[in-house]
Structure formats: structure tokens, C-alpha cells
Amino acid sequence: MARNRIGLQVEGFEDYMAKLDELGGADAMKRGVNEALRDSKKYVNPLITQAMAKLPAGGRYSTGNTKESIDESMTVDWEGMTASIKVGFDFKKSGMTSIFLMYGTPKMSPVNGLKAAIYGAKTKKQIAVIQAEALDRVIKEIMEGD
Predict the structure, then answer these.
(1) Could you tell me which of 131, 130, 100 has the C-alpha nearest to residue 115?
(2) Per-residue 3-state assignment (H helix, E strand, C coil) for 35-93
(3) What per-residue confidence (pLDDT) applies to 6?
(4) Orientation angle between helical segments 13-52 and 121-144, nearest 10 degrees
(5) What order do you get walking across the sheet with 82-87 strand by strand?
């Protein structure tokens, strides 16, 4: 099963990439995308951790294994000119438990806020803002010679 990934969701993506390309070519574009995706994950991971804190103490899934399986890697994956970063849980560590917690089962309700931490409209909107800020920051750094 594929894990969740964040891609660039910023409005005006083409304009940002054109500006970065003009300033520093492919290296500048890659630097901007990497920064934007890492900043996005830095925003989402605490939301996931906060939602996981809502598990009932002593419950079947409150062993801590799933919380420990939250992907902390900041590696941006590139396939050609398409980049993404993994978010959520490492399925190899948590198995189906993370799915049960996110979506619920016939006998168990989903954990409040867990799905919204990754897929929610508010999260996506904030990620777009974060990515725009990261791209602006990289453009500024390049223009100032950093």
C-alpha cells in the first residue's frame, strides 16, 4: 500500500518555478521545492502526533507503536522533475493499525483529527501558505547571494 505524500500545492506554482529557473536554473528550482516540501512535513507531523495523543489510555491501539511509526524522514523523493515527501505512518512499522485509527472499523470510531491532520482542507490550505513562504524565502536568499 502506498504511503501518503505531499506535493507542491502552492498557488502560482508555475510563476515560482519560472522565477527560480531565471535566478539559478534547475538547481534553484530543486532547492525551492525541497525547502517547501520539508517545511510542509514539519507542519503536518506535529498535527499527527497531537491527534495520536487522543488515543484512550489502555486501549487496544495505545501501545505507542503506531505513534513511533510516524515517518520523521525529511528526504524528498524525485522522479524525473516530480518531487514528493512521505507523510504519515511507516506502514512497515505500524501495519494496518494506522489505517484502522485513521478510518475506524465497524466496532471502533476513527481517531478525531487524525485524517484531517493529513487530508483536511485546513491542513491543505496552510500547507499552500507554508510552501509559498518557503519558495519566497529561497528566491530572496538566491537574490541576496546566500
Answers:
(1) 100
(2) HHHHHHHHHHHHHHHHHHCCCCCCCCCCCCHHHHCECCCCCEEEECCEEEEEECECHHH
(3) 73
(4) 130
(5) 4-6, 82-87, 76-79
Which three three-digit cell numbers place residue 119? 487530508
Spatial separation of the C-alpha atoms in residues 46 and 40, rounded to whole Å: 11
Q: Half-sphere exposure of 138 toward its Cβ, with a 13 Å CA cutoff? A: 27
Please name the amino acid found at residue 145.
G
Smallest CA-to-CA distance from 97 within 72, 119, 84, 114 is with 114
- Bridge partners of 89, per DSSP, are 70
pLDDT at position 122: 94
Task: Report the predicted TM-score, pTM, of the whole model to 2 decimal places.
Answer: 0.84
CB 115, CB 73: distance < 8 Å: no
Residue numbers of the chain with a pLDDT score lower than 50: 1-2
